[in-house]
Design brief:
This protein is mainly alpha-helical. The protein is built from seven helices and four strands, in the order E-E-H-H-H-E-E-H-H-H-H.
């Protein structure tokens, strides 16, 4: 047994005492506190398991977010392609009608202002097409298609390296984009004869529609 000084009154007391016999001050056993703290220390294996589980939860959360973001971008780009494709189809049909009506002298309220001058049909269909491409409303539509082309191209760049569950959707998107690009370019820069333009336009139009149907299964 050893003697210690009471922290309150300073008098000597036994180190086994729970309180001072002189003033009644409780005696704190520091070694017991340290022992209790030591008992409460966590097992390193338990800590490691908790960290691994936390890391897995974070990994799952990040991948779910990437998948969700990719899906939203896929929806957006498909909508842009379909929307722009419809605009290109309308322009292409008007190009065909102006071209056709000039050659075969067909009257139509939609094309007469391009195909006729002084109420007489143009002798050269190129004059009619020039009138069409100099029309403010039509040129704005064509310019909008070109703007959409650039915008969609930038969106396509963000679609590279898809999450594994979206790899098939990305392949379908690439095919759709190629068809859209070919189709819209026919409208922006029509070439060839009326027959070749009509055949290329109708074929591209049908192919684009087919790919639009295929991509629907990947759109939410």
């Amino acid at each position: 047994m050893a003697l210690i000084n009471c922290p309150e009154c300073g008098k000597e007391i036994s180190d086994n005492a729970n309180k001072c016999v002189n003033c009644g001050c409780p005696i704190i056993k520091y070694e017991n506190i340290y022992a209790e703290k030591s008992k409460k220390k966590k097992n390193p294996i338990v800590v490691l398991v908790i960290l691994v589980i936390a890391a897995l939860l974070i990994w799952v959360g990040v991948n779910q977010y990437k998948s969700y973001t990719y899906q939203q971008n896929l929806n957006a780009i498909c909508y842009e392609i379909i929307s722009s494709g419809i605009e290109a189809e309308e322009c292409g049909n008007l190009i065909h009608d102006v071209w056709y009506n000039t050659i075969f002298k067909e009257t139509s309220e939609d094309t007469d202002k391009y195909t006729k001058e002084n109420n007489e049909f143009n002798e050269d269909f190129n004059d009619s097409l020039d009138n069409l491409y100099n029309d403010k409303d039509f040129t704005e539509k064509v310019a909008n298609i070109q703007i959409k082309q650039k915008s969609i191209l930038n969106m396509m760049k963000e679609m590279k390296n898809p999450p594994s569950k979206h790899k098939d959707a990305y392949k379908a998107l690439l095919a759709l984009y190629d068809e859209y690009n070919d189709f819209s370019n026919l409208v922006i820069n029509p070439t060839g004869s009326l027959q070749s333009f009509t055949e290329e336009f109708n074929e591209a139009d049908k192919s684009l529609a087919d790919h639009c149907d295929k991509i629907k299964m990947y759109i939410d």
